[in-house]
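In response to reviewer comment 3 from the previous cycle, which asked for concrete evidence that the modeling workflow produces usable outputs, we include below a single protein chain processed end to end. The sequence was submitted unchanged, and the resulting structure tokens are shown without manual editing.
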Amino acid sequence: MPVNSTSATETRQAGNKIVVAGIATIVLILLAAAIVLFANLPDANAFNARVEHIFIENADLTAQAEIKLLEILAQSGTAFSETLDSYRFVIFVLLVFATAMLIAAVAFLVMLIAMNRRMGHIERKGIEVNSLLISRDQNTVYLNNFEFKLTAAAIETLSVLAEARMDDEVLSGAEIEAVISGRSAADCDEAAGATRIKRLRDMLGNQMVSELLVKNIARRGYMLAVDKDIIQMV
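The workflow returned the following structure tokens.
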């Protein structure tokens, strides 16, 4: 059975690069906005410099009330400077918080998209078979670590299909019956092998196995629809 070799690893790597590029773009945009914002904020000492300029230009102000007014202006400049410094800190904290929130939003969005794709893949493909262990001595098969007790005949049928799958072969019903019975395929009935397949499916759960495990290829026969590398027989 041909295996679709579209690389999931390459797709995942491309997705990771897009995510990293998106996060880097967000950080760069916010960094640029922060630089522009801080560059356009007034200098914290601008008010003090202006008050100092007033003192220099009005050196002839010697009255007590005028001097007191200038002192009040100087104190106001100091208060303005401290207030502006606190505003700078608040703006910095808000920008950091906004960056973290945007990065988290992008990460959660990517996770949701990946989860939706995975769920869609599961819905289309069904439960993925990751391991298939056949124990002939115990008449047991472990499918994704789920244990199924089978009859000796069902184990024989499954074992024949597993051996054929490892050899990349597709067996007809007559060939399955021939391998199990030890007779020639020409002397065996197609319906006998089909009956064995039906009983195997019934033992494991017909609907699940018909989609996941035992595949019927039109005009060719039967095979296990799993990767041959995951099959183990003991």
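Residues 132-233 form a domain with the Arc Repressor Mutant, subunit A fold (CATH 1.10.10.10). We consider this sufficient to address the reviewer's concern, and the full set will be provided in the supplementary archive.
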